[in-house]
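Sample pair:
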Amino acid sequence: MRKKFLMFIGVILIVFTMATSAYANSTYVLLTKGMVQSISKNPLYVRAGHDLHVKVTSTNLPVSYRVIDSNMKLITSGTVTDSTPKAYSRGVPEGNYFLILKCEVDDLCSASGALND
């Protein structure tokens, strides 16, 4: 239990360090044990001509993620596990975007995600 918690904290620190050093505009989401779903509290504003960068990792169980715009339109989605993290970019129109993480099995998963401009 303690080993998994320390691994989760390490993953979070690495993701946040890489994201904050590479991008000035970002929003983060944490999904911890006991939570079924989590959504970014602040939207990410993507400026015209910029890409949306998505990073999502899980430390144990499958976690689904969705990126939606301010009109609740689905932009991209997928599933991650501890062995299949996701990191990619895609072009999107200028606007605000939110990241949603959801446990696929029960409330025992741990995950983190970030959106960057």
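Residues 31 and 111 are 5 Å apart (CA to CA).
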